[in-house]
Amino acid sequence: MSDSKFPKMLDYEQLKQQFAELDQQDQLTSSAQRPADSNDEIVDFSSEKLQYEQDRALSFDQNKTEYQRPLLTGSRLRSYAFAVLTRKEYSKVDLIEKLSLYAQNREEVLTLVDELAQENYQSDQRVAEMTLRSQMRKGKGPNRIKLALRSKHLDKTLVQEDMREIDWYEQAYQLKVKKYGTDVAKEPKLKAKQIRFLQYRGFEMDAIMKAISRKIDDD
């Protein structure tokens, strides 16, 4: 190639202007040559191009080979289990389901989780106690706590003794004061609103009625 035939520097703005002028001339020429009463159809190439691109993309998706991660087993599965438990506490059931997503053999997962539980790396008791404390910090009553335990596939008996020692009436009262103040509601609508609020939080009706009826003098 000679430098004269292929210059190193091109004036792109000038070229763009030239091509724009040529396009305008072609449009004027084609419109001038077409008769005024011409009924020729105007072909919409943009829609044909769009359909072509869609067909091409579909063909590519059908033909491409998806990469599949190799399933874990042995020491690699064990290392992954430790990594999972380092980040978060899991109930036994949830840990089995988590590891089974990446394991080659579910039976190996069951054996591994049993071993981890025996060595106290995994503990349903620990997860249940953490769940109880977390729910109480959020102002949840016993019914909502039981639901939270069930969602983690934990038996409520794991924290049954702890829950018996909690003064749920006091918990409901403190939540009511935080939301509505210390005044005892006299209007039926406001009283019903407070009842619904505490019911939604998971408190029993007995604790709710005591909480919304409690006066400052009763302290």
Judged by helices, strands and strand pairing, the structural class is: mainly alpha
Euclidean distance between termini CA atoms: 99 Å
Mean pLDDT: 80
Give the oligomeric state: single chain
The backbone outline, from C-alpha atoms, is elongated
Helix share, percent: 55-70%
- Detail the poorly predicted runs: 1-10, 35-43
> How many strands appear in the DSSP assignment?
0
CATH-assigned fold name of the domain at 167-219: Arc Repressor Mutant, subunit A
DSSP summary: helix tally:
11
Task: Calculate Rg over CA atoms.
Answer: 36 Å
| Topology pattern, helix = H, strand = E | HHHHHHHHHHH
CATH architecture title of the domain at 167-219: Orthogonal Bundle
Pfam families: RecX_HTH2, RecX_HTH3
Keywords: Cytoplasm
InterPro entries: RecX_HTH_2nd, RecX_HTH_3rd, Regulatory_RecX, WH-like_DNA-bd_sf
Domain RecX third three-helical: 166-212
Question: Main traits of this protein?
Answer:
cytoplasm; Arc Repressor Mutant, subunit A; 0% strand; mainly alpha; 219 residues
What do you see in this structure?
This protein has 219 residues and is mainly alpha-helical. Among the domains are: 74-122, Orthogonal Bundle (Arc Repressor Mutant, subunit A); 124-166; 167-219, Arc Repressor Mutant, subunit A, CATH 1.10.10. It has helices spanning 12-33, 45-63, 74-87, 92-100, 106-118, 124-137, 142-151, 160-164, 168-180, 188-200, 205-213. Helix 6 crosses helix 7 and helix 10 crosses helix 11. One of its GO terms (biological process) is regulation of DNA repair. InterPro entries: RecX_HTH_2nd, RecX_HTH_3rd, Regulatory_RecX, WH-like_DNA-bd_sf.
